[in-house]
Amino acid sequence: MEDKTEKKYRPDWHPENAGDEFAVRVVKGSEPGKPEIIKPEIKRRHYEIDDYAEGVLRNDRTILARTITLIESNSSKHQAIAEEVLKRILPFTGKSLRIGITGVPGAGKSTLIEALGLYLIKNGHKVAVLAVDPSSSVTKGSILGDKTRMEKLSREQNCFIRPSPSSGTLGGVTKKSRETILVCEAAGFDVILIETVGVGQSEITVRSMVDFFLLVMIAGAGDELQGIKKGVIEIADALLVNKADGENKKKAEIARAEYSNALHYLQPATPGWKSLAHTCSAVTGEGIPEIWEMINKFKEITSESGFFEMRRKQQSLQWTFDMIEEELKDSFYKHPKIIKILPEIKEKLLQEKILPTTAADELLNLFKE
Amino acid sequence: MEDKTEKKYRPDWHPENAGDEFAVRVVKGSEPGKPEIIKPEIKRRHYEIDDYAEGVLRNDRTILARTITLIESNSSKHQAIAEEVLKRILPFTGKSLRIGITGVPGAGKSTLIEALGLYLIKNGHKVAVLAVDPSSSVTKGSILGDKTRMEKLSREQNCFIRPSPSSGTLGGVTKKSRETILVCEAAGFDVILIETVGVGQSEITVRSMVDFFLLVMIAGAGDELQGIKKGVIEIADALLVNKADGENKKKAEIARAEYSNALHYLQPATPGWKSLAHTCSAVTGEGIPEIWEMINKFKEITSESGFFEMRRKQQSLQWTFDMIEEELKDSFYKHPKIIKILPEIKEKLLQEKILPTTAADELLNLFKE
Q1: What 3 state SS string does A236-279 have?
Q2: How many Å apart are CA A93 and CA B353, to the nearest integer?
Q3: Rounded mean pLDDT of chain A?
Q4: Does the pLDDT value for residue A171 go beyond 90?
């Protein structure tokens, strides 16, 4: 969708298919002989709830981005508006395939996402790429970084790239990511690629919000999985050995066989679906169409068995209870009395001067007072 | 330690080394010509806190068993006494090796525990065998079952076998098991074998209360691990292929090699320790001394690195916070208002008529009112 008004003011030499990130604009000049005062636009346009909801539904990129910013805001005023907007768009959500993508640094996640995204867009899909990083206070993703990494993809009109939300509690970031998925779905994106940026808990978090979970690997010395957090292989619906090109192709094939062997020992991540290892090359494009074929097969099988729908419902319930439990814990651990006494109790526990049972009782009594 | 009073009243024909489960007693008769009224003992002796604590410390089996019963009781009066007893014995706890043992049904866990237990006792150790079954409301362990399964071991004076606590919440059962470990340690048992009886969560629960975690397997069709819950291999400090005897020996060796290969792909369960697969036979006794040797090596290495002590401290803190968080959740989910409205909210969530965020807010507001 293109903004005609915007286009009019672009210089003639703008790159073909330049996306909204192409910020150079020709400023409307004054008429000859009639000097005009150009007021710098210092105030962002004010939107009402309806503006947000309608803007998202007609895939207005500016409003889409601002809605997500609203969701990510920590201000309670913004959050209240965001919740109202989400309520309006709720009937238009859920109609995408949500795909989680994780992998060790250096596995070529970004190039793979770019290759897959471009392939999908070529085949008529609308693709949103989101990043989830629950540990984001340390390793913040940056929009510049993401756009640079996925340069070609970011120029596509049918693509929307959004970096990880800024720091917050694990639950907070998760909540934001989940709501961002809903907003992108309401805006008409039918494939949502969710990349894990962080390490540790993030894979589990992403698994809890996607339909299909992909683990990207590379061929190496046979100890590849050592870098992967325990349990990540077990939650993957497919392992993908990337960089299977040139001299690396043979090595990738050996690694694929090894991973297949490892998968053999594990329960499938999704009932009724056999998680397998595959090779691909984001550079040559080999194996990319097969990924999409596999994911479609997955959707077909799990939809037939009813698991697809059931998992989504479970995720929705789980999300609710996760939020509640996080809030309950917060109210305890952030209670001034608990904050004050906790170091002392911890010390006693570490020195084995007090029973855990006694410690728990003391803290709970203090909290309930 | 033998109770002399008890022994006096045993019949001459009692089996050698009969344990306390050998219940036949010679009843003190009346003197000739002087008929005596024998009052049936209908009331158990009443113990004070000091009696319990002292009884446990001098390894009085009757008091030990009754203290554990007290710990397992759901009555708040009993729990208060239990906590006092635990406080007294706390300085005498912690001096054992806590070993968790799990495995698929049919792997021969019980015979292995018996073989290992007998070996340890022969080498001067005092062994307590406990069972943990967090799912015990369904698959209750029974003392008869356990004693029957470990017949020889149960006859040893330096052994104490206690079945899984009766049903309760997961956290409740865990709490009881942890406290039972402490009581057994105070009673002088220097090796505690904790068998998981349940399935699912129980392995993780047991891992959180032991120093060393052993996974017992058997050789089969190559798909052995399919029956094992995801992630169990990853928390094991050693895999043991049992029943490596007779015709099965070769198959067991092949399985061992396969498991070793699988372990190769995983991070070690304990930093600084390489989890390996081994074979053994509980029937021939082959490989049993090597298990103990390995566990001692483990203790040596992890004690030197400081991880042994650190894990215990972490477990103690974790236990405290687990209890607190369970209590917080309980107070929410058992709140009358929440119980009343939850089915309705769940239904709305499943029908996607409400956002998880909204559902969580509504429930929390109701709870805090």
Answers
A1: CCEEEEECCCHHHHHHHHHHHHHHHHHHHCCCCCCCCCCCEEEE
A2: 11
A3: 82
A4: no
Rounded distance between C-alpha atoms, residue B239 and residue B264, angstroms? 12
Stated pTM of the model: 0.71
Structural domain that includes position B63? 44-92
Query: Which of these ranges, A10-24, B103-117, B236-250, has the smallest mean pLDDT?
Result: A10-24
**Interchain contact B337–A (C-beta under 8 A):** no
Taking residues B300-320, what's their average pLDDT? 95
Token reading at A363: 């803290």
Average pLDDT rounded to a whole number, residues B172-191? 89
| B146 and B187 together in one domain | yes
Contact A319 B86 (CB under 8 A): no
Q: State how far Cα A151 lies from the chain centre.
A: 18
A159-162 sheet: strands from edge to edge: A159-162, A127-132, A191-196, A97-103, A212-218, A238-242, A276-279
Q: Residue A138 above 50 pLDDT?
A: no
Nearest to A251 by CA among A218, A227, A283, A277: A218
Give the burial class of A248: count Cβ atoms within 10 A of its Cβ; 0-12 exposed, 13-18 middle, 19 or more buried. Answer: middle
Answer yes or no: are the C-beta atoms of B115 and B288 closer than 8 Å: yes
Best probe of the B interface among A324, A330, A345, A353, by most B CBs < 10 A, is A324
With an 8 Å Cβ cutoff, are A317 and B346 in contact? yes
Chain A interface disruption, residue of B85, B314, B328, B329, most A CBs within 10 A: B328
Residue B10 shares a structural domain with residue B112: no
Instruction: Phi first, then psi: give them for residue A219, nearest 5 degrees.
Output: -75, 145
Separation of alpha carbons A356 and A291, rounded Å? 50
ipTM higher than threshold 0.90: no
Question: Are A209 and A111 in the same domain?
Answer: yes
The enclosing domain of B356 has a CATH number of: 1.10.287
Domain count, chain A: 4
Please name the member of A178, A262, A361 whose beta carbon is closest to the beta carbon of B265. Answer: A262
Task: Assess contact for A194 and A100: CB atoms under 8 A.
Answer: yes
The one-letter amino acid code at A134 reads P
Q: Cα B155–B174–A265 angle (5° rounding)?
A: 90
Please classify residue B183 by burial: count the beta carbons closer than 10 Å to its beta carbon, then call 0-12 exposed, 13-18 middle and 19+ buried: buried
CATH number assigned to the domain comprising residue B121: 3.40.50.300
The angle, 0 to 180 degrees and rounded to 10, between the axes of the packed helices B307-333 and B170-186 is 140
What pLDDT does A110 receive? 87
